[in-house]
Amino acid sequence: MRALPAILAGVLAVAVLAGVLLLRPSGKERPNLGEIGITSQTYEAKVEGVSTAPCVANPELQCAAVALRLTEGPDLGSEYSLAVVLSETSPTFAVGERIVLSYQEDAPLEFRYNYADRQRRPVLLWLAIAFAVVVVGLGRMRGLAALIGLAGSVVVLLQFVIPAILDGRNPMLVAVVGAAVIAYLALYAAHGFTRMTTVALLGTLAALALTALLSWVAVGAARFSGLTVEEAFIITIAGHFDLSGLILAGIVLGALGAIDDITVTQASTVWELHAVRPDLGKAALVRSGLRVGRDHVASTVNTLLLAYAGASMPLLLFFVLAGQSIGTVLNGEVVAVEVVRTLVGSIGLVAAVPITTWLAAVFASEEFAAERQVRPEPR
Q1: Model-level pTM?
Q2: Are strands 42-54 and 62-70 parallel, antiparallel or unpaired?
Q3: How many beta carbons lie within 10 A of that of residue 94, not counting itself?
């Protein structure tokens, strides 16, 4: 019985590995979005000067003539001029700043480069460095291990989940298997190969399975089309994808982060309670653990809601300005998807508390009982 958590985790690991092998990306050729005007080639340029004058094509409009020097690409070091029609939504340029240009190799020279975005990589890099320093500074070796687990999660997403979905695999199955792989990597990397971590992993996988099942039922009942964002239309042009399946995949992957957080907390709480009070039985451990879990759930559910609301803030503002009723707003697919995502994720989150607490109470009691048998207290 003492080895049961490790056995269960091992059996599930074999099942997950089989899923990875069955769903692994085939490497087949994918649709080329360049055929519909979306280029993958972008290069950096530095703004050398900006002047404003009436547009040549329409003198009633004002245009900004932006002098650029290319700092990347086949025309490195060359000068290029970019004309931008000025409006409330057009980008502004400052001398010395760096921007990103899209590149069309077969276009005429005057149209070969177009404004794509601002260069934000230095800001992102410094934020990432600051994040790593803070995590390692507080968590020491455990913080470093957590960063390694984070890197592993990114690798799983980029090398397995996304390529497999692009190959036409079932998005739901890919997301479940990918989320399970991430759970193994993240939990064991951050918390070590301990019995407590294994219990947290089992609770995570159980809650993840429940979340996947509920999301499958809810998305099917709501009959979501998946055509709620511009990118969805683009990928339907590029190939045949299960858009409702992509919603399911997003729900599963989005819920994982909150679920593994709460399962680790519950397992750790029960373990510490039993270490301090070895006389507590399973029932008392469960009751104490659930009291902690209720507080954690209350704050985490609110976190999920605010995270989704924050991401959809411009959309919510639009609906308020449109004067639509709450019922009409919630019924719209673009909002209903987020409602289902929040509610299903929250149900999985809540379910993780009693599942993990009970598993931790059972196996923590057995571990301490076994230790007392090996090392009996002196009389």
Answers
A1: 0.81
A2: antiparallel
A3: 7
